[in-house]
Amino acid sequence: MKNKNLINKEMIIDEVLKLDDSLGDIFMGFGMHCIFCHLGMEETVEEAAYVHQVDVDLLVEKLNEAYNIKH
Q: With a threshold of 0.85, does the pTM exceed it?
C-alpha cells in the first residue's frame, strides 16, 4: 500500500529530492527554483513555500501525488 502522505511541509527540500529527484519539476512548476539554491539543503518545504508565496498545502499535495504515481 502506498504511503499517501510520505512528504510533509516539515521536510527539508533536499530530503524530498532524495526521495525522487524528479520532484524538482513540481517545485519548478510553482516557480520555486530553490532546488538549485544552497538553501535547499537547509530549508523546509514550508519555509520555501512562504518565501515564494506558494500555498504549502497545495504544494505538498502535488508532491505526494507525483511521488505516489511513480512509486
A: yes
